Amino acid sequence: MPTKRPGTAAARSRQRVDVRRRRRRLALLLVLAVVVTGGWFGARALVRSVVSPQCTISAAGMKETFDPEQTANAALIAALSVKRNLPPRAATIALTTAFQESKIRNLRFGDRDSLGLFQQRPSQGWGTAAQILDPVHASNAFYDALTRYPGYATADITTIAQQVQKSGYPEAYRDHEGQGRVLASTLTGHSPAGLTCRLDAVKGAATPQRVARELADQMGVSTVRSGDGFLTVTAPSTTAAWAVAQWTVARADLYGATKVTVGDRAWQRSSGDQGWSSGRDGTTVTVSLG
């Protein structure tokens, strides 16, 4: 019979305990690594969500977010409907279409020869490539086509958008009717104080003359008084005043606008997500630049 060596069982027991301890320490380190890594990526996502420029539009119980490029283009599309004295429904149809076609970005590429906000094709008679890449021309071309259809103002949005665009995906417009409605209602002035933007610090401001010129080109507003770093618009109604004000906020990243007021209410770039102050509406809009 073999001789039993003293202390062998105790040594094996100690070894097992040491192995279990090492495994527990390794497991703990792995858990900590996962937590730290997840926390890092979560923190990065949180930082991005806090500091990234973003515009929020609220109307009729809906809320949508867009980046400043999308919002600036949407404001131009809506403004041209106001200039043409079209019903807000026209802007809804146009914005729904632009969201589906380009996410409201002035794309320099697309399927075959499609270009721009509405992915219009030179080969289909929408204009030259240069014209289609001009958002004013592209939007007016869309409205020209839209208004040829009697009853468009009460027609199903997806149906009428497809009649204008003749898309290969005719039902896709329906997915973006909500975005089109909230943008149109706010940017045509029918949902006061519905738009606020959180933007980076101003890096360079446009001249008041440039803002006044583009306001006239896009919305047809000519009652503008400008001075050193500001312009003032006298609107015929509070709805028109809010259309001007929210057009300016939507394009504030382009122009370097720092404050926009409508009557006693104000949007300030430095206030981030706080939105418009309380107070009485009015028909005078003042824009501060730089």
Structure write-up:
The chain is α+β, with helices and mostly antiparallel strands and 290 residues long. The chain is built from 10 helices and 8 strands. It has a 5-stranded antiparallel beta sheet. It has a 3-stranded antiparallel beta sheet with strand order 2-1-3. A hairpin with a 2-residue loop joins strand 6 and strand 7 (265-268). The radius of gyration is 28 Å and the shape is globular.
Keywords, separated by commas or semicolons:
single chain; 290 residues; alpha+beta; three-stranded antiparallel sheet; 10 helices; globular; disordered N terminus
Topology of helices and strands:
Elements: H1 8-51, E1 54-59, E2 62-66, H2 68-83, H3 88-102, H4 129-132, H5 135-146, H6 157-165, H7 177-187, E3 195-198, H8 208-219, E4 224-227, E5 230-234, H9 238-250, H10 252-255, E6 257-262, E7 265-268, E8 284-289
Antiparallel strand pairs: 1-2, 1-3, 4-5, 5-8, 6-7, 6-8
